[in-house]
Amino acid sequence: MIAYKGFNKDMTCTLGYGRFQYEIGVTVDESETGAKCASYGLHCAEDPLDVLNYYKSPESSRYFIVKAEGDIHEDARDSRIACTKLTPVKELSIQKLALHACHFMISRPEREPNNRVWKDKGTADNYFAIVRGKNPMARGDKGTTLFLLQEAKDSKEIIEFAAYEVDGVEIKEDTYYDIDGREVKERDKGRAKKAASA
Fold it and tell me: DSSP class of residue 40?
């Protein structure tokens, strides 16, 4: 299966018995140990945003698409999995990781969103904001990316998707934009709740 994983900058990560070195395109095989989340095996996540629960900052982390094989174990703590074979396939920037997270939600609209997803209205952190709702809107500082996912009126199905980079010219700083890239003229009444806690 295709999944996502974070690493330290040197492509190491911590296993139960120490640090392990990974390489792009090289399969690590831990079949002898088996797989059990938080105990043993090679860990990754199905939802790209869940990687940020463990490797929070791009300044100290790298993010990859990985191929997870062999024995697979899930424990219902976010979307993490443990497997016995893992291959780092392709590196992603944090913005690309967020884009993959949007695709994940589009293909699985009924799943509970990660707690980093805003409901209806949100503000980007240092890198991005993902906002999902019937009429999503987002704002951010220059250099951040705004990802908007519009749900159908009568379901959680995603019917429209848009992404905007805050460049300070076409997409202005600290200004809310809707799914069509139009400025939303309204006073900010505080930060919206994250989707998972709404």
Answer: B
d(CA 102, CA 198): 19
Strands 80-92 and 42-45: antiparallel
Both ends of the chain: CA-CA distance in Å? 31
Which residues of the chain fall short of a pLDDT of 70?
15-18, 186-198
Query: What pLDDT sits at residue 75?
Result: 84
Long-range contacts of 172-175 (CB under 8 A, 24+ apart): 173/139, 173/140, 173/141, 173/142, 174/139, 174/140, 174/141, 175/139
Contact 119, 133 (CB under 8 A): yes
AA identity, residue 151: E
C-alpha 178/C-alpha 180 separation (Å) is 5
- The pTM for the full model equals 0.88
pLDDT on residue 196:
47
- Give DSSP secondary structure letters for 108-126: -TTSPPPTTEEEEEEE--S
